[in-house]
Every structure is written in structure tokens, then in C-alpha cells.
Amino acid sequence: MQEMGNLPGMTREETGPEKSEGSPAGSRGRPIGMLRRESNGETAMQNSFHQPVDAAKVPRFAGHATFMRLPAVESAEGLDIALVGIPWDGGTTNRAGARHGPREVRSASSLMRSTHHASKTEPFRIANIADVGDLPINPIDLMDALKLIEAGMRSVVEAGALPLAVGGDHLTTLPVLRAVAASRPVGLIQFDAHSDTNDTYFGDNPYTHGTPFRRAIEENLIDPHRTVQIGIRGSIYAPDEHDWALKQGIRIIYMEEFIERGVAAVMAEVHRIVGDAPTYVTFDIDAIDPSMAPGTGTPELGGFSTREAQHLVRLLEGVDIVGADVVEVSPPFDLAGMTSLAGATIMFELLCIMARLAACRRNGMPATSR
Ligand SMILES: [Mn+2]
Question: pLDDT tens digits, residue range 40-49?
């Protein structure tokens, strides 16, 4: 694994192995890069997980903008979770700009600290996580871009890391699924304002950010009976727009039903739908209300609050997540970076859930808890 040098403010001393046995875990002076972890009272295990730059030592506005201020690495080898950018918006049918999402989400993610305040999860202590950079893409050739994204994601998957990607428009999820679900169809949990199961646009063009999950079903990448879409709303092209998806067996939870039932009941049903089998999670930032996440290609009023979105993601605990993404953050339409911050925060929420899952796998514990 090739690290791209230490970040400013990180001395060799800090990245080196732990020297004293009694160094209290969680203390400010904890050495970076090597630490001891107690696991259920069992023998302490020595790890060399990547650590973010310590926000108490180097201010969060300083240094290279990587996801979560983690080291930038060249390959996903040895990682539990690979943070990946997919700067491509060639599937956008209206307002483009999500190609700029990864860079701005990296910047906003510098606001994340080491520990989840509610679950107390310390993702970087329990799992090995790093920023593997942006996948190669082609901004002027859609079919080539889809191939490049799939190939790039295959290298992450084949390295054995769980991918957590930042788009990019929602069509980026299709080549990601081609890599993640290459050997068997997976379940899908989709937070979104739109179903994205239309057939063709502008004549017979099958590949846009309004079609990825129709293609994914046709290609046997996702199991429609284990697919659930939450937060769907906004004007549609025709009264029967969602009929195809419903006929396949997709469960669509419109925003009106979510308001009626609430976070816990909806997520309990989500767990029933996807069960214990491998499942991909995709979070379109337009699921959140445009008053809180205006920087997106196809905003729809009446969305989730950021707080509801956080609670929804936290209740993914127990799902056998094989990968996840946050898509459609479009910085050119953003205000004061609020959408990038929403994207980075949802990414951190997903990361905490995925790190706990990765830690369970590492310790030989069951991946699913429900
Ligand atoms: Mn979408």
C-alpha cells in the first residue's frame, strides 16, 4: 500500500509504531498508525489502521483535502473500507455539476471528527479505512465512462474492501453495481426523491441518471424483491411512471407514507425486505429537502430533513452492506457548502455503520445482528 506521504503536521514519530505498552487508548497523545484495541475483553490486538489527521493538532481547514482527512492511498489492498470518488455526471438529464461532488465532499468531510456522538463508534479505530482517490472516468464518452468506473470499482472489490463512493450522478451506481454484484444479485436500499427506473430518454437512450435501477434489474444486478426506495416524491412524467418498478416487485415508500409511519417503522420494514443477504445502499442527496441540500441536479420539495436522514442511515445497523454511495451532490448549485456538508455527514453516518460491520467480520462475528 503506497501512501502519498504524511500530511502536514504529522511527524514520523506520530505515524510510527506504538512504543509504550501503557499508552491510554483514546488519549490525545495516542500514536497514529499503530494502536491496541480491546475486543470484548479478549486479547488486545495490534493494528496498523490508517488514522485521520488529529483535529486537535492540525486545524481542520489545513492540509490536503482527503475524505475524512485520511491518508490518500494508491490501492484498496489491505483496507476494510475504501472511500472512492466518482467525478462523473455524464448521465445527467437536466442540471449538471455532480462531477464536482467528490472534491467538495472531501473538503466538507474535514469537519467530521473521529467518533460518532450517539453510537460512540470510532470508525478509524475499528476498521482500516483510507481515501483511494477518484476512479478514472471519461467526461465526454458515456459508454467509456461506464466501463472505466466498473473496472475501477472491480479493483476495489477484488482487493476485498467495502466501497463507500461519492458521485457523480446516479448513473454512476450502475457500473458500481456491475462490479459489486458481479457474482450474484444484491438487495438495494435507495434513499431518493426519484425511483430512477425509467426506460429511455431522448429517443432510445438507455443510460441516464433516471434509468440506472431499471438497467440493474435487467442485468440481474439487484433483486427487485429485495429492493426498497424511500422518500420518492415530486412531479412525474406520467401517472404510470412507477408501474414497471412496482410490477418487478420493488417496494416504493413515497414521502407521504414515510411521514405517516415515521423513521423506525419504515426502517423496520426495510430490514424485513432486504433480510440478511448482501445489500447495497445508495443515498441520493436529493432525498434531503432542497432547503437543506439545494446543490443537486433535480431538487424536489418536501424531502427529508438532515436529521431524519441521519436517523434513517443509523437504522441500517444490521444490514449486510456490500457497498454504499452518496450521489448527486452538485457544488455549482450549492449554497455555502451546505449540500457538500450534508453529503459528507451522510457519508460519515454510513461509514460508522460499515466500520462496525467490517469489525464484526474481522473478529469472525456475524455480519448481521437482526
Ligand atoms: Mn437518484
Answer: 333 334 468 9
